[in-house]
Amino acid sequence: MSTPANLRRLTVIVLAALSALVLTACSSIPTDSPVGHIEAQTSEPGADSARAPDGPKPGDSVGEIVRGFLAAGAGTANNFAVAKSFLTEAEAQEWNPLASVSVLSGDTEVDSLNYEVTSDQKTLTMSVPVVGIVDSSGIFSSATPSTRSNLEFSLRQENGEWRISSAPNGLVISPTTFRTIFLNYSLEFFTSDFSYLVPDSRWFLRSSSTPTAIINELLAGPAPYLAGAVVTAAPDGAKLNDSNVVTIESGVAHVSLGNLTPAPTDREKGLIRQQISSTLKAIPSISSVELTIGGQVVSESLQPKTDSSVQVDGPPVVIAGDRISRISGTTVARVENSPDLKGAEASDPAVSFDDSLYSYLSGGGRELKRLKADSSDPRTVLRGEGLVGPSIDRFNSIWTGERKNKGEIIAVGRDDEVYRVSADFLSGRELMDLEISRDGTRLAVLSRQGSEPARIDVVGIPRDRAGNPSASLADAPLEVGSYFSQIRDISWAGSTSLAALAQMPGETVQPYRVGVSGPPEQLGQLPGGGDRIAAGEDGRSILVTSSAGEIYSYNSNAWQRLIDVTAKDPAYPG
């Protein structure tokens, strides 16, 4: 079982670890310090530091063969040739090392794993603790501290030596090895109105074939949790040409697609080029992209200048002195026309990106208020039992939901129309918080059930052409932050991560940055851990308030209190 210290190490471990491809609950497990040589098989930074362990030795026992095989998962050279040397000739042809990747918890080493062997020495089983699983498309799912992967190996003698005749597909590797041989990349898709690029975070093996794997996944479409929320310019059936390889020459990535049917317009060609070039730009060895479709070069001039993120220019909003206020530097300024909120049981203010409207809860969460910036008369736009704090999207729709949830999220549009959006995964759970991503495509939902730890679900928001939410959220939310024993509050911190006040088992509540598809990173120690958290678009402007109203700002990797400022419920625009 993982100790609290182990789980805390997971924070740093998995963060760099999640670099790549696929994870399910099966496969080979490398040790943290195998004996071997340094590989030099790829030009990707960091890949050369991967250590390749030795192959099997004459007379190795069944246990030594299996452990050696698991450790050899760290060696990627020549398509995992060292690991395959532990297999029979037939199994070496069948075993797929990248069918899945499971990341071991904390400081777990292969030598510490218990296993059982049948009396005839032909079957070995073991159960290993894992902290994260990446599927075959590179999508990372966090695992709870109690998650284990059950592995079974069949063995037989070949030329007088034990070899594995049946092994689980995929890798089970240590966090240290994972961060060495895998990297995180964002596949870029579009919002439904093509106004912004939306990142779909995936993990891929560091190798010369990484650009090809990335483009194949991009052409295959977005992750299930984004279904209906983002669009791709590449039509169904789009794929690389017969060579099926992205080549790089002098920093230029050559991407050749086959003929597309129907033939794309110039605008569509430009959008396809935008997706591909924006996705590949994260690879250090690539400085530019040449795209051909059906043998014809797509000019860079056709590529639009699509924004990669929504700018958050306004200061945070808070409630201070019984008024809606904005934080400016180390001071708090009352919002002009803010009503007197004394006695109103007001909480959870929000402000739109364009500063044209504010929203907050009143009556202890029973009323959702909307206040236009040019008016001093707030209007009640929704009534409910125990509403959660509002979040305003870039279309100026206000999102909330009832704490005792029956499987729906509520949005109030600009025209006061109320949209009740089905969210079946919330049915019967207590809704604690919800936050809309700044591009408006994703909803981060914090909820809990009974005495179970709170969890974060990230799910896409399908919209109609007017930007209004459609009937239901995507039905495959991505679970985030499963390794926490408590989560108090969340906020978007950029386009690929969340800020959270959370607790590892055995620890105290502290601020973390949590990848939507990846592990957490603790953001230093904060006295008392904090009560509410808010983050700006860049993920660096982070505020935490205490239950006493003290405000702390995160700058230069340290927390500083804003002297003489007292407020509650901070929120950046959105």
UniProtKB/TrEMBL annotation:
<keyword id="KW-0732">Signal</keyword>
<feature type="signal peptide">
    <location>
        <begin position="1"/>
        <end position="25"/>
    </location>
</feature>
<dbReference type="Pfam" id="PF10647">
    <property type="entry name" value="Gmad1"/>
</dbReference>
<dbReference type="InterPro" id="IPR019606">
    <property type="entry name" value="GerMN"/>
</dbReference>
<protein>
    <submittedName>
        <fullName>LpqB family beta-propeller domain-containing protein</fullName>
    </submittedName>
</protein>
<dbReference type="Pfam" id="PF10646">
    <property type="entry name" value="Germane"/>
</dbReference>
<feature type="region of interest" description="Disordered">
    <location>
        <begin position="33"/>
        <end position="61"/>
    </location>
</feature>
<feature type="domain" description="GerMN">
    <location>
        <begin position="211"/>
        <end position="302"/>
    </location>
</feature>
<dbReference type="Pfam" id="PF25976">
    <property type="entry name" value="LpqB_N"/>
</dbReference>
<dbReference type="InterPro" id="IPR059026">
    <property type="entry name" value="LpqB_N"/>
</dbReference>
<dbReference type="InterPro" id="IPR018910">
    <property type="entry name" value="LpqB_C"/>
</dbReference>
